[in-house]
Amino acid sequence: MVTLFPANQSIHGMPAYMSYATNINFTTMQAFVPFIYIIPTSVIMIVILMKYRTAKMMMNTASMDPNIFVTIMFYFFFNILFFIGDYVHLNLPSSGLVTSWCAGTQPGWPHTLIVTFAYFGDYGTLSSPFLASLIRLVMILSPHNHGKYCRLLMRRFVFPFIIIVPFSLSLISLPATGYCKQLGPPFNFGAIIVFESDFFAKINVIVHLSLSNFTFIGHYSLSAYMFFKIRKTTSNTSNQTRKLSRKAELSLTLTMASCIIPYITNSIVSYTFLFDRNNWPRVLFLRVIGNDYETLMMPWVLFFTHPLFLRNKIARMNTNQGSSIWNSGSNTPRRSSQKF
């Protein structure tokens, strides 16, 4: 039986979809798989927040710079928003669990808001590693006055960028009329996606690629420069302090490196959408893998590698730390390795 779709391929009002009955199978159950790892990951995010606050109150020598930590919290926040948005936008609809409901729902602003919300989380996630690299660069270039410059950078650039850019770019989809459409092969009948029309989808993909390339190139250009610069800035410190500083730097570098996989997978999906639309559904699984990888790996890598969360090492460092590093919260030196 051949199903005839309207020009925009909307499934709204189509009897075959309105009467669609979900079969519980492997494909359907995949909609619940992400919760197996997203719930523990959310708990780890909360643990990181609590341990940081405790370390800050105790003036722990392994404590993380507050500006870096705020940026990482933004990274956490936008990753969770993007996970929720992408789940409602693609993961859940493609399972077939909401096909009948979506076919009976009038296309309009609820569908558009789902797409807009997903892109808002996406753009915030893309921006965070780049902004964190800027802060780390300021800390390396101005070790004695980085507190003042980082606060200035946060107020004048980081906060406006992380709020205005994702919000304004995600508003591109608002004029669209969102709806549900059937996904092509290899997806089965009933696997759908919340869509914003071809015209707005192309614009969103181009905007996504532009911001993704800009932030990715900027982030790794700064990271490459800092990789060599950090060797010089720690050459005059004690071995103990140098070791902790490098561990912290490595931890943050690995944490921010979690954006490499989603950059590659999302780029493949985006370019396929623009230049080979027939095969776009075949590579959509890469989008889910890449995005969930970033959401999962970023907090876990930070938790298991940063000295702040390694109890035994922190305890040893607390016994005697002889380095004088300028605290970003003031312009007075303190006995601390709080640099990253």
UniProtKB/TrEMBL annotation:
Keywords in alphabetical order: Membrane, Receptor, Transmembrane, Transmembrane helix
Transmembrane segments: 31-52, 64-84, 117-137, 157-176, 205-228, 249-273, 293-310
A Pfam short name: 7TM_GPCR_Sru
Name of the protein in its database record: Serpentine Receptor, class U
Gene name in the database record: sru-30
